[in-house]
Amino acid sequence: MHPLARLDHRFVWHPFTQMRDWLRREPIVLVAGRGAVLRDVYGREYLDANASIWTNLHGHNHPRLNAALRRQLARVAHTSYLGLANEPASLLAADLVAAANPPGWRAQPKLARVFYSDDGSTALEVALKLAHQFARRTGLARRPRFLSLAGAYHGDTVGAVSLGHIDLFHAAYAGLLFKSDAVMAPYCYRCPFNRARPERADARTYRRCRWECVDQVERRLAAQRRRRGEPYAALVFEPLIQGAAGMIPQPPGWLKRVAELARGHGTLLIADEVLTGFGRTGRGALAVGPADMAEAPADKSSRVRRAPSLFACHHEGVQPDFLCLAKGLTGGYLPLAATLTTRAVFNAFLGEYAEFKTFFHGHSYTGNPLGAATARASLALLQSAASRRARARLEWELARELARLWALPAVGDLRQVGLIAGIELVRDWRTRAAFDLRERAGLRVCEALTRRGVLTRPIGNVVVLMPPYCTTPAQLRRMVGALAESIEEVLGRGNNRSR
Ligand SMILES: *Cc1c(COP(=O)(O)O)cnc(C)c1O
């Protein structure tokens, strides 16, 4: 075993990992990366097919991000944000507010303030605390309660876990958590209201339903008011696609309807764009073709060529009261997060010192200059025409490559939102019969993928592909080709209906 792997085995405890399994085999120790390729201690190369757990945007070792980071490093690495400001964090706040309020877009409310933290979980924790106090101070709710989507994952701090609905985590931390309510999330492939029989296509495209999932949200919002005499303080959601819940995409129109219903009840919107932000959802369309690759048409009223927004909410014309950002914020370089909110929320925390309306929350590394400088360079790249074209092209190529996987009977649903793909593995696509989690179907397919030099992690029986935006067509073909081979190797290629 490599000495670095031995040190890991001896001293380290890994996240979300059964360490007994981990200690059974030599871990991959990564030492370098360039573009979509990572290299380990033995010089073996791998394609980074989940963008290093959904964080990386432009590829590893990007010259522009490296330069921005080095420039800031030559000035100062970190200074306190308590009672002091710093250059890159001020500049980044202005950039983020501009990006969150696209020009020519009249959606309300305006996102006007940025509160920095370090990770997705803390970005949600900040939104949660702000919304809770806002609701009490304004009289919106005396005992603020939150509504979020079934299966949701919003992070691992105690508040963020409380907002989520993954039974496994709730069982583990029962007693530590506060209560929040769950409402049905659209999951067309496994929706009890979808009367369509399985086809070899994204379940959203052939579903047969009457938007019962939206009715359920409406009922929940109304029931809360009826029973408790006050609305939910906030609805928490991932726009367009739920990530860690299993890469579960929403049918077009769902978000807009649900957001309008919540607003109608006076409930605030907390958008968790930790995964979906920064161009990950492309144009947010169901499927794209070469014709869609042209840039967005000119906005007639302002005669400004409008670029598609970097945020998923905006694809449905929804502007939240809280926009939570992390993972891709620094292009996958450093832990930095931001919670954007409105002037109304900000104003509720203004007062005389002795009123103690201050937002009592913060972290030692709040507003970290290295992270902020890198994030600015990443945003500038994202807004360049070259990056927009590359993303549109990759989105289209991903759709084309994924289509090959329908030939495999173990592929039940194939869902893509922009540059995010979830491949749901099933025992029998005709019945949608699922594998028992203990069979480790997703894990075994990903292990076979690793042997072929492609790195990603499954969520249960859903394999995730989330290539960095710099992935070349040849690299993408290798990722999907290796996935097809791995599924065949592990789950067979024949008609497995009889098993
Ligand atoms: C990853 C993730 C989080 C948590 O972010 P961390 O940086 O891991 O704390 C929260 N929400 C969503 C949607 C995520 O994907």
Describe the fold and architecture:
The strands form five sheets. Strands 4-14-13-10-7-5-6 form a seven-stranded mixed sheet, with helices on both faces. Strands 15, 16, 17, 19 and 20 form a five-stranded antiparallel sheet that branches. Strands 1-2-3-18 form a four-stranded mixed sheet. 44% of the residues are buried. Mean pLDDT is 93; it is low at 287-305 and 495-499. It has helices at 3-11, 19-22, 51-54, 63-73, 87-100, 120-138, 158-163, 167-172, 203-206, 212-228, 254-264, 312-315, 343-347, 369-382, 385-402, 441-451, 473-491; strands at residues 30-34, 37-40, 45-48, 111-117, 146-149, 181-183, 234-237, 241-242, 248-249, 268-272, 298-299, 304-305, 322-325, 337-342, 411-417, 420-428, 433-434, 454-455, 458-459, 462-465. Helix 4 runs antiparallel to helix 14 (369-382), helix 5 (87-100) packs parallel to helix 14 (369-382) and helix 16 (441-451) crosses helix 17. The chain has two domains: 3-61 and 387-491, Aspartate Aminotransferase, domain 1 (Alpha-Beta Complex), CATH 3.90.1150; 73-385, Type I PLP-dependent aspartate aminotransferase-like (Major domain) (Aspartate Aminotransferase, domain 2, 3-Layer(aba) Sandwich). It is an alpha/beta fold and 499 residues long. The chain contains 17 helices and 20 strands. Bound molecules: pyridoxal-5'-phosphate (PLP). The site of pyridoxal-5'-phosphate has 15 residues, from helix 6.
